[in-house]
UniProtKB/TrEMBL annotation:
Name of the protein this chain belongs to: Cell division protein ZipA
InterPro entries linked: P-loop_NTPase
Organism of derivation: mine drainage metagenome
Length: 161
């Protein structure tokens, strides 16, 4: 067993800002795995997520299940790209909680992308049919209204794109 801890990679950015695309690049690093909220939710709750309320309920269950799993991966030296949105203070607090008992390194990758660019990417993603969830413009606006950029006082190691 290695004594080196893994690194936790966190992703912050609005819908369609490129978080999952960046995650696929980060996971190319040796001894790194990706845990994608969208993939897990689509497989665990097929046809159940039809509203933001459904998403909040299902993602809450998933986070509860993932917390110890992610910590154990980090503890045994596996780096984790946590492709869950670090888009609110509460979400980032949950993510910081994973690190509390592990004391692993982390990087918060902040994709600072305009709403217009995200909407352009979102519409293309929706049209392609390749993503597990379709998000309409109105839902984008509603979800984006909760977005809070990371702040220095949250004490994350932020890498801004």
């Amino acid at each position: 067993m290695t004594s080196q801890l893994g690194t936790l990679h966190l992703l912050c950015g609005k819908i369609a800002s490129g978080k999952s695309t960046l995650a696929k690049e980060l996971v190319k690093t040796p001894n790194t795995v990706i845990l994608s909220e969208d993939e897990w939710l689509a497989n665990l709750y097929p046809s159940e997520i039809k509203s933001i309320t459904d998403y909040i309920r299902c993602s809450g269950h998933l986070r509860g299940a993932m917390e110890k799993h992610v910590a154990e991966l980090l503890r045994i030296g596996v780096s984790v790209v946590l492709d869950f949105p670090a888009n609110t203070v509460a979400n980032r607090k949950w993510m910081k909680g994973i690190l509390k008992n592990v004391h692993a390194e982390h990087v918060l990758h902040f994709l600072d992308v305009s709403d217009d660019h995200c909407l352009m990417r979102l519409r293309a993603r929706n049209a392609s049919g390749t993503h597990a969830f379709v998000v309409e413009d109105a839902e984008f606006d509603r979800i984006t209204s909760y977005f809070v950029a990371p702040q220095l006082e949250e004490e994350f190691n932020i890498l801004r794109y």
